[in-house]
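Sensor protein
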Amino acid sequence: MNPARSLTTRLALAFALIAGCAFAGVGLYLYSALAMQITDRDDAEILHKAVRARTELADDDSSAPERWREMARVVSGNEEFGIRVMDPDGTLLLSAGATAMPMPQGRVVAADDAVGADAIRTWHTRDGTKVRGVSMLARLEHGPAQVKVELFQVGASRVALLRAYRWKIFFAVFLGAVGAGVLGFVALHAGMAPLRRIAASTKKVTFSREPLPIDPSALPAELKELAQALQQMVDRLRERYERLSQFSADLAHDFRTPIGNLLGQTQVALSSERSVEEYQALLASNVEEYERLARMIENMLFLARADNARVGLNYAELDLAEELARQADYFELLADARQITIRVDASGKVKADAILLRRAMGNLIANAVRYSPPGAQIRLSGRELDGEARIEVSNPGPGIAAEDLPRLFDRFFRGDPARANSGESSGIGLAIVKTIMDLHRGSVEAESTPGGKTSFRLVFPARPASR
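Predicted structure tokens:
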């Protein structure tokens, strides 16, 4: 079928084809049954006339001319039946009724044997008409001891009847198929009305509109599931659209700050003559902004590669105490500058990519150092429990509002709407942590109490799932 045709048309054509095949099968059965019934009826008539012919020949004590007239009456009244009687020498004694080609050589029923259906043979006339008949021997009361009798029927009327019946079947199959196709099209067109309503309603959907403008309860059960699936898809697309819009705005804002700094400082420097020291200070400041841009671009490229499954993992069995101690040493100078201490309490093993694990831990510890007050203590803990490895980073601080926790791992999300600390944080760190845990088929959890403790927990599965 042409895929460009509508589903209604294709199903209607399928109905027509199925109905045509079904009607053709029924017609073929009826035609075969009628043909067999007619053949059985004609064969019974042949056998009846054969018995009558034998009886006439055996009981007839009249003269020869009268005897043959009586024999001719056996086939009289039906122009399709014919009879031929021959003496033992082959001399034709009687030929009455229909004419046909001589019966081909074959079985001749003996005079003392009963004539049954197995004795009936078939041959054809010159024009191809089927002939059925029997060849038998019969005893005479007077005259030759035995004669050969050929009794047959030329099936011209049977052929004509079956031909006419065949055309009626063809016509009935055609009308039935067309009728089924038309009625199927009408029924399907009416049945597809809810789908057309769904399509028309879906065209009106926008990202500013919440539900589909169609009541699922007014739809059939099968289409109700489709409507609900469409609503869920629209909700997901709307959520993705809103995130993408926010992502674009945040990305533009975070790129604008360093670029604005670079542009402003450079314009100021070029507005008048500067000393070598001032130019060097400008270049050093520009390098910091360039490094910040480079980190943002690198982080975004990492997220893009992770989204497209282009980040390969090199799993290794790592010691939790050793890895957490390594991270504590790395951030020791930054923590000392803020008068913050880092405590490590870990044991067990974790199966993970070492580089990605250290990157995720570094992002969490950097955030903890940034938001912890002076004199605070950051706690790094790790345990292997029930086949899973759990790493937790907790610190005191201002905490995170409950309404911000669900979006905490979104890209470029920061709880401060004014983005006052955009120079220190790009809002990608936690998104990278979540991506790294997704790559490990693990999870990241966050708990926070405003003005209290904030904890981030990494959960690694016992064995890396096959990718």
